[in-house]
Structures are given as C-alpha cells and as structure tokens.
Fold this protein.
Amino acid sequence: MATETTTFEIRKTQHSRIAEVDFSNLVFGRSFSDHMLVSIYKDGQWGQNQIIPYGNLSLSPATAALHYGQTIFEGMKAYKSPDGEVLLFRPFDNWKRFNLSAQRMCMPAVPEEIFVGGLQELLRLDSDWVPEGAGQSLYIRPYMFAADEYIGVKASDTYYFVIFTCPVGNYYSKPVKVKVEKEYIRAAEGGVGAAKCGGNYGGSLYPARLAQQQGYDQLIWTDAKEHLYVEESGTMNVMFVIDGRLITPAVSSSILDGVTRKSIIAVGEYWNIPVEQRRVSVDEVIEAAKEGRLDAAFGAGTAAVVSPFSHIAYEDVDYALPELTENSFPVRVKDFLEKLRTGRSEDIFGWNLKV
Ligand SMILES: *Cc1c(COP(=O)(O)O)cnc(C)c1O
C-alpha cells in the first residue's frame, strides 16, 4: 500500500458528460469519463500532479514520442460490486509491469502513489462512470510518453504520465478463426516484445490486415528465428487445453507477462488442472488438433478476458476446434474470473483492491 501520499491538484469538470453516454450500448474505447490524471516528469522528478477534466493535451510538433516511439501503456479494469464498491483487479501487477516496460524503454519509473494512489483518487471522482451491468466494466488506460521538444534520437528528459478511463460493455465475441503466422513476426528474442510499448502494436497491424483479407480474425504469432514455436495471439497471450492439461508458452523477452494469463494459471492450479508453462511447438498443437486431443485454445487478455478459437489455420488447412459448452475450460475460467472481479464471489486470491 502507499507509503507516502502524493497530493493531486483536483479540478472538477463543470459539465459532466455522463448523461450523453448510452450505457446500454457501450462501444469499446469510444466514450471517455469526465476526468483524467496527468503527472509530468521534469528535472529528474515527478510533479505537477493533476486530476483535471478529460480533454486535449497541447503538444509541440517536435514531441519526441511522436517520432521515435518512446511510449508505453497499460490496460486494466475496475468493476462495480453488487453493493456499489469500486474494485480494481490486481492493479499492483499492472504498476510493476509498467515500470518494467519503462526500464526497457529508458523511461523513469512511476511511483506507486502516483500510479495506484492517483488512480484511486481518479476513480473516486469518476465512480459513477464504473458501469454495473452484466459484463460491463471501466477500462483504464495509463500511459507515458517522451515529451522533450527535440528530434535528436535520445532518451527524453521530460515525460507525461496520463490515466484516462472508458466505460466498456461485455466484450463477448464469437469464437475466432486464427491463422498461424509464418512470415511476419510480432517480437524477437532480445527485442521489446515483453514491454507494452507502442511500436509493438503499430507493427502488428499490417500482418493482421493481410490475415483478415484471407478470412481470419486474428493471428497466432510464432518465434522470430524459426517460426516453429507459438508465441502469442494478436495482442493476447495464448493458451491451449490438450489432453486435459493447460499449456501456455513460458514468458520470455518476446512474450508479454499478461495478468490475465497468470490469473488463469492460478485458477487452473486451484482446480487441480495440470499446468505447463514451456515452449509450445506449432506441430504439437496441430497434431493434437488432428487427433481430436485439442480440447480448447484461446487468447487471454484484459479486454476480452478469454477469446476462444473456433479454427486454427496452418499451412492453408483449417483445423476446427470442438464447440464450446458451459463445461469448456475457457467458459468456466472466464465466468470464475468475472464473478471474482465483480465481488460476486469470494476473492480467494486477494486480487481485488477496493477504491
Ligand atoms: C496487454 C497484452 C497482453 C495481455 O496482458 P493482460 O495483462 O492480461 O491484459 C498479452 N499480450 C500482449 C502483446 C499485450 O499487449
């Protein structure tokens, strides 16, 4: 918990926009809550901590982040419990990962009292924006970018840290068709794949578009050296259920250490399901699919929680996965996590933080 307190200058909006939002029809990432947090790093320290009305930032065209991509982000969610409490899911894990991303991108760490403490202040102010409908939540976007007005290639001396939030609906998507990608890569060993930095996502758009033109919803990325091992799926971690075992690639310098992934692993272990975190070859997955031993495969990440696959395409052959039932692992684990995060079941792992 916060050891020091940072004071935020709070300026409340005079014109709440909440009445303009159709909470029964929320589109992901399009409506923004009333306030945002902004802290500025300058002369070796964080300061000018403010919580102010959501609005535009005024930046120089020479702002370093816009040119060389020194920018990182997080994605997390808050939920409303049946008694109206606002609950954050594992925020310290996002804070720690943010600072690992910062280190990799040569950026300063953000102290806990700004990241977690400031976020709590922000959510207290905008608690009415945390929706309470089934499957709804408040998506939280903390990010940091290099703010020097300078176009030499170097680590910036000034940074903005910003948090804004968006009420979001149930992200249920029908099971997706994924394609094993063997030409393009998302990340290479020794690169920045383990950091949540902007460039990773910019670089993934083109291969994803090509796959969509071929009729697939999403990609399964393979290793950069040989394209033999599974890495991630789109912007999610990837998990397989083979012969009743939960199997997922071990995290590495090219795989992001997802909070959803590790939560699912913990639940799997709690249910006494054997869990294997190791290198997973494409051949192993395709063999299992051919032999009917691939019970389920899915992406895991904060936005959708789980995104099950209906088909995996490999070398122009589509392998169909079994239809999901209410007993399928991805369905059960999603339900378990949703109940825990919304305070509708006991928080046996101590993952929720009350705002
Ligand atoms: C954010 C992200 C994930 C999922 O992480 P969560 O903490 O579960 O949201 C997985 N892979 C990539 C590449 C990501 O950017």
